Amino acid sequence: MKLIERLLLKMIIIHFVFLLLTQVFFHRFNSFPELQQIAQYEGVTENDLTEFLETFSGK
After folding, report:
1. Where are the domains of the chain?
2. Membrane among the record's keywords (predicted)?
């Protein structure tokens, strides 16, 4: 059982490192320009709370 737990922990750590490297690669080096357009369209890059509140007040 200990062997399986150690193996799973190592796999989780390796997966997390690859996730971080991929995020840095996509966001910092602009290797996927459509990602920036998608993020702007979704509104996750702006911190404008008033537009967010106006969206929900106009039901």
Report:
1. 2-57
2. yes
